[in-house]
Hints:
The complex is a heterodimer of chains A (about 120) and B (about 110). With about 120 residues, chain A is mainly β. Chain A contains no helices and 13 strands. In chain A, the strands form three sheets. In chain A, strands 2, 4, 5, 6, 9, 12 and 13 form a seven-stranded mixed beta sheet that branches. Chain A has a four-stranded antiparallel beta sheet with strand order 1-3-8-7, with no helix packed on it. Chain A has a two-stranded antiparallel ribbon with strand order 10-11. Chain B is mostly beta strands and about 110 residues long. Chain B has no helices and nine strands. In chain B, the strands form two sheets. Chain B has a five-stranded mixed beta sheet, with no helix packed on it. A four-stranded antiparallel beta sheet of chain B has the order 2-7-6-5, with no helix packed on it. In chain B, a hairpin with a 5-residue loop joins strand 6 and strand 7 (about 70-75). The chains are: A mainly beta (about 120), B mainly beta (about 110). The interface of A and B includes residues 56 and 102 of A.
Amino acid sequence: DTGVSQDPRHKITKRGQNVTFRCDPISEHNRLYWYRQTLGQGPEFLTYFQNEAQLEKSRLLSDRFSAERPKGSFSTLEIQRTEQGDSAMYLCASSLWGSNYNQPQHFGDGTRLSIL
Amino acid sequence: DAKTTQPNSMESNEEEPVHLPCNHSTISGTDYIHWYRQLPSQGPEYVIHGLTSNVNNRMASLAIAEDRKSSTLILHRATLRDAAVYYCILTTDPTSGTYKYIFGTGTRLKVLA
């Protein structure tokens, strides 16, 4: 079990630029979640996938945000035309879900985004 | 989504037991109680979860009130490495739906040497 890995760990960019983050879940996990965490707050749900299907998006996920999980493996989260308010830690989590069970989510250590 | 209420901060001495409370008065019959903790610059780490009965694992114990409107995470002997923000989270039936986590602001635990 190599855990959930996220890349990069830190990203600094200028306002208006596009950024993309990657998440590699635990290999057998079929569910993948994205959360956003700002300083002093708990993580907030953004979206989740079951295999390659994106099943729910939070209203926090504006149209500048897009997430994909091609082939149901790794996932990417892209933010277009970044704004100051996008500065946050972006966390990825994965879990193993079945019709009669759902294991707790395992989190990566996040990508910290700073907008200059 | 059902909400939880936790104290903002707590302190404990090293090697003493710690009881972290959580109130969830609007919990429904199918809600599970999860506890996670988060160290600085790391993602949340799973600690324990339960539905009705008390639960024990190598990290901690979870005591759930008979009416399920509150629960307590018990760290039996606090160490300096236990200093973290602890989140109590309610999740709906994990075999259906999104099963997304709704985090509050958690309890910041400070462990004194």
